[in-house]
Amino acid sequence: MSSPRYAALVGWGMAVPQRLVTNEELAQRIDTSDAWIRSRTGIAQRYVAGPDEPTSVLAAAAGRAALTRAGLGPEAVDTLIVATCTPDRPFPATACAVQRMLGMGRGAAFDLVAACSGFVYGLSVGTSLVRSGMSRVLLLIAADVFTHFIDWEDRNTCVLFGDGAGAVVLQVSAAPFGSLASNIGAWGAGETLMAVDVGGTLLPTTSELLSERRQYVYMNGREIFRHAVRGMCESAEQAVREAGVSFDAIRLVVPHQANVRIIEAVAKRLGLPMERVFVNLDRYGNTSAASVPLALCEAAEQGLIAPGDLVLLTAFGGGLTWGSSVVRWGCE
Ligand code: COA
């Protein structure tokens, strides 16, 4: 019998755009205030991509950093997944541009669309590819330039989002590192609770739709809030149960960074003190798919997780989508 395969996280990296936008700057442009944004969301600032920072550029920077930390060259990667809902172009996949930028070989490269759950979806799919033997070294990048779809005159949405990219390298391992249990799910009936309607095949762009500002994201904040808490809690509980561990064994929870009140509600429902829950949305806002790996990278940089520790990742996003993973950090 062949020994079991795992997909250890052997490298990680992140990238954010150059331009920093504070709450105060937004308050000079629209009817809002630093106090409102901080108290309702926990966000103090975010990074916003410029014209020379499309999704592929941020993704490639994060991917390069992850490969450097793994001590691997781009030629070692046989599979590249870019989780994004804000691709460079409708087609081809942004992953193909990133493959070119990183100077990789001719391995598989594809995009995965699961909005803010993109990284946990990608980790689940990527781990399956490695564990099945289809891939030996897989680069998973989650990158979004969500602000491209933001109406900067809509105070209900524009204060919430920022741009960024995070990446991990998965490598085949005989020892039990990487994702030990994961689940992903979706509820398509909630499709229009949060969406961008215009620009696809359903509603191609017309000047009339543009004049109605329909090319931008809209959402039902309160409903999303409710679904997010429930979705992340149920999915996290399932992942912990299926990993055969208890919440006491989890060193750190790294949740999707949308709103600190959502995170606090999840922690409360799971019976976890906030000291064991990582939060960095005050500095980045909601970076969509990039949010979980940005938080994971910072937690690792800050020494909050050490090799062998169990980390619980949980996310929720448009779709509606959700997913969680119990990860043993590090490698042999
Ligand atoms: N500045 C000042 N006031 C604002 C504002 C802003 N940026 N945005 C909204 N308001 C106003 C609203 O217009 C509303 O005013 P009204 O009562 O006169 O109509 C008031 O603040 C309260 O709005 P409400 O919707 O009750 O606030 P809330 O406590 O639910 O917080 C969100 C709003 C959007 C922050 C919150 O619902 C949320 O975070 N939801 C989840 C959204 C999300 O994370 N989506 C991505 C998931 S991946």
Automatic annotation (TrEMBL):
<dbReference type="GO" id="GO:0005737">
    <property type="term" value="C:cytoplasm"/>
</dbReference>
<keyword id="KW-0963">Cytoplasm</keyword>
<protein>
    <recommendedName>
        <fullName>Beta-ketoacyl-[acyl-carrier-protein] synthase III</fullName>
        <ecNumber>2.3.1.180</ecNumber>
    </recommendedName>
</protein>
<dbReference type="Pfam" id="PF08545">
    <property type="entry name" value="ACP_syn_III"/>
</dbReference>
<dbReference type="GO" id="GO:0006633">
    <property type="term" value="P:fatty acid biosynthetic process"/>
</dbReference>
<feature type="active site">
    <location>
        <position position="286"/>
    </location>
</feature>
<keyword id="KW-0511">Multifunctional enzyme</keyword>
<feature type="region of interest" description="ACP-binding">
    <location>
        <begin position="257"/>
        <end position="261"/>
    </location>
</feature>
<keyword id="KW-0276">Fatty acid metabolism</keyword>
<feature type="domain" description="Beta-ketoacyl-[acyl-carrier-protein] synthase III C-terminal">
    <location>
        <begin position="241"/>
        <end position="329"/>
    </location>
</feature>
<comment type="subunit">
    <text>Homodimer.</text>
</comment>
<dbReference type="GO" id="GO:0044550">
    <property type="term" value="P:secondary metabolite biosynthetic process"/>
</dbReference>
<keyword id="KW-0012">Acyltransferase</keyword>
<feature type="domain" description="Beta-ketoacyl-[acyl-carrier-protein] synthase III N-terminal">
    <location>
        <begin position="110"/>
        <end position="186"/>
    </location>
</feature>
<feature type="active site">
    <location>
        <position position="256"/>
    </location>
</feature>
<keyword id="KW-0808">Transferase</keyword>
<comment type="similarity">
    <text>Belongs to the thiolase-like superfamily. FabH family.</text>
</comment>
<dbReference type="InterPro" id="IPR013747">
    <property type="entry name" value="ACP_syn_III_C"/>
</dbReference>
<comment type="pathway">
    <text>Lipid metabolism; fatty acid biosynthesis.</text>
</comment>
<keyword id="KW-0443">Lipid metabolism</keyword>
<dbReference type="Pfam" id="PF08541">
    <property type="entry name" value="ACP_syn_III_C"/>
</dbReference>
<dbReference type="InterPro" id="IPR004655">
    <property type="entry name" value="FabH"/>
</dbReference>
<feature type="active site">
    <location>
        <position position="116"/>
    </location>
</feature>
<dbReference type="InterPro" id="IPR016039">
    <property type="entry name" value="Thiolase-like"/>
</dbReference>
<dbReference type="InterPro" id="IPR013751">
    <property type="entry name" value="ACP_syn_III_N"/>
</dbReference>
<dbReference type="GO" id="GO:0004315">
    <property type="term" value="F:3-oxoacyl-[acyl-carrier-protein] synthase activity"/>
</dbReference>
<keyword id="KW-0444">Lipid biosynthesis</keyword>
<comment type="function">
    <text>Catalyzes the condensation reaction of fatty acid synthesis by the addition to an acyl acceptor of two carbons from malonyl-ACP. Catalyzes the first condensation reaction which initiates fatty acid synthesis and may therefore play a role in governing the total rate of fatty acid production. Possesses both acetoacetyl-ACP synthase and acetyl transacylase activities. Its substrate specificity determines the biosynthesis of branched-chain and/or straight-chain of fatty acids.</text>
</comment>
<dbReference type="GO" id="GO:0033818">
    <property type="term" value="F:beta-ketoacyl-acyl-carrier-protein synthase III activity"/>
</dbReference>
<keyword id="KW-0275">Fatty acid biosynthesis</keyword>
